[in-house]
Amino acid sequence: MLTCSKLIPQGQGLANVLLKRATTIELDWDVRQKSRFDATDSQGRALGVFLTRGTAVRGGDVLLAEDGSLVRVLAAPQPVLRITHCSAHGTPFDLIRAAYHLGNRHVPIELQPDHLKIEPDHVLAEMLDRMHLIVAEVNETFEPENGAYSAHAGHGHDHGGHSHDHHAPAAAHVHGPGCGHDHDHGHTHSPAAAPARGKPVGIAVTAAPAPHVHGPGCGHDHGHRHDH
Q1: Scanning 22, 57, 131, 182, which has the fewest C-beta atoms within 10 Å of its C-beta?
Q2: How many independent structural domains does the chain possess?
C-alpha cells in the first residue's frame, strides 16, 4: 500500500503537465470528509491516505504519495437533494431562508447562486416543501460549504502581486518613537468644547469657568455672623 500524507489544495502551484500525468481517484463526500481512508487509483494502486485530522478532501485536490507521485482527486456523483426556488410562488430569497434554517440544524450544504444541495433526508425535504421550495432527487457531485475555521477556509488571496489574509485581524497601533504621529507631550489638553448652537464651525467657544470654591486663602473677606 502506498501512503499519501500530504494534500495540495486544488493542485496549487503544480504545472498542468504534472497534473495531466497524475493518477486519479474518484470518491464521494462520505469518504472525502474523512482524514484517513483507503482508496484505489486509476492505475490500480492501493493507497492509504493519512491526513491531518479534520482535513476534508475536495474534488480537484491533489495528494502527494510517499514515492513522489501525484494523485488527483475527483468528486464522484452521488444521491443528493437539489433545492431551487419556485418562480411562480416565491423568489430567490427563499434559498437564503432555506440555507439559514438548514444551517441552524448543522446540515452540510453546497451553496450555488441558483440552488442548494444537501444529502438525502425526507424530513428536511418535507420542511423545504412547506417553505414552497422545489426539492429534486438527483445524482450529482456534492461539495458542501467549508466551515469558517476549516483547513480550506481563511487562506490568503493574491491580487496583483501582493497577498493578504481576509481573516487576519489588523495589528493594534502602538504609539512611540518613529510611529509618525505628532505627539505634543508638554501640554495638558482639556476636552474640546462643543460648538455653540448657531456659531460657525471653526470658531472656538470659550468654556465656562470652573465654579469658585470658598475656603482659607481664597482672598475673599467673609464676615461670619452667628445668631443665637
Answers
A1: 182
A2: 2
Q: Residue 69: which domain range? A: 2-75
* The three three-digit cell numbers of residue 90, written as one number: 416565491
- Whether 84 and 108 map to the same domain: the answer is yes
pTM beyond 0.85: the answer is no
Instruction: Look up the CATH number of the domain holding residue 8.
Output: 2.60.260.20
Tell the residue number behind the cell numbers 494534500, with chain if given: 7
pLDDT averaged per 10 residues in sequence order, the chain, 228 residues: 97 96 97 97 98 96 97 98 94 96 96 97 97 97 77 44 42 51 49 47 49 54 45
What pLDDT, on the 0 to 100 scale, is given for residue 212? 54
Q: What confidence score (pLDDT) does residue 201 get?
A: 46
- For residues 38 and 49, membership in a common domain is answered with yes
Residue 20 pairs in a beta bridge with: none
